[in-house]
Every structure is written in structure tokens, then in C-alpha cells.
Amino acid sequence: MPRLLELIASEATHAAKGRAAHLILKLNALTEPTLIRALYQASMAGVQIDLIVRGSCGLRPGVAGVSESIRVCSIIGRFLAWQLHADGRYQRVLRADAEASRDVQAELLQHWCRTASASS
Predict the structure, then answer these.
(1) Backbone conformation region of residue 30, classed left if phi is above 0, alpha if psi is from -120 to 50, else beta
(2) 12 burial level (CB within 10 Å; 0-12, 13-18, 19+)
(3) pTM for the whole thing?
(4) Pairwise CA distance, residues 119 & 92, whole Å
(5) Across the 120 residues of the chain, what is the mean pLDDT of every consecutive 10-residue run?
(6) What DSSP letter does each residue of 60-108 carry, written as one string?
(7) Cβ-defined contacts of 10-13 (< 8 Å, 24+)
(8) CA atoms of 76 and 120, how far apart (whole Å)
(9) What is the DSSP-derived secondary structure letter of residue 57?
């Protein structure tokens, strides 16, 4: 993780100097306090941060002055079982684990992220 923290700090330095700075991270979970603090610091420096988190996420996006430049796309909770809205109701399509190929999971995740970011 030291390398990841160095990269985050580097982007924060770019942002502090007025350069464009953007991080996109795909993580299984985000619960490590050191990593969360580094992301908050980068956000406060002006780095645009997009997180795709497949599991638990201990970071709070959108907090004024702290994490307002952080967006989190998470599939925990209601998105652990992929659902489809059809015939006026939600229907379980498949689980997000062994029943779905990685391609299907990725496609559904990308669709959800586009939908979530369009509505915010």
C-alpha cells in the first residue's frame, strides 16, 4: 500500500499546484484508515476522485470541505444481487458472485455507475 499512498500524495501535489488531478480506484473494500485519510487529504487539495468499491466502504463522499470531490460507486447492499426493473417491479436476475460471469458483472456495474452519476 505504500506505493498507492505515494500515488495519491503525488496527485494531491499536482492539484495544489493548479494542475489537473484525477484518481480512479477500483477496490474490493475501503476500510483502511490510512488510505481513507489519504483520499480525504487529496480531495481537500482539489483532486477529483472516483471510487468503485465492491464491498464495504468506510469513506463518506460529499462532505463539505473534506470529501466533496469524491464520488463512490458501490455495489454493496441492494446491489449484491443484481436486479432488473421490469413489469413495474424489481426482479432478481442473478447473484453477483458465481452465477454471473465477470463480463456480466462489469457491464451491470458500469451501467449502474452511469445511472447513479447521471442522477446526482
Answers:
(1) beta
(2) buried
(3) 0.65
(4) 23
(5) 89 93 89 95 95 87 95 66 47 46 56 54
(6) -TT-TTTTTTEEEEE-SGGGSEEEEEETTEEEEEEESSTTS-HHHHHHH
(7) 11/42, 11/47, 12/41, 12/42, 12/45, 12/46, 12/47, 13/45
(8) 18
(9) B
